[in-house]
Design a protein that fits this description.
By secondary structure, this protein is mainly alpha-helical. It is built from three helices and no strands.
């Protein structure tokens, strides 16, 4: 879980231009748009992590 949180933090920090955009946004719409982009980046990391975890599980075949 800690590794996942580290990946999420890395993803957010790697998009420093998005953080800067968020800080300099001049309207509510711009703030929401940038926050949405950041949220999508976090969601991508979560989905990739879950798919990777499931891919490593043994496959159960019906008899």
């Amino acid at each position: 879980m800690i590794a996942l949180l580290e990946r999420i933090i890395d993803e957010i920090l790697s998009g420093e231009t998005r953080i800067l955009k968020l800080e300099t946004a001049s309207s509510l719409g711009a703030i929401v748009w940038v926050a949405w982009e950041i949220g999508l980046s976090v969601a991508r990391v979560l989905v990739e992590n879950e798919l990777s975890r499931r891919a490593k599980l043994p496959t159960e075949w019906p008899h």
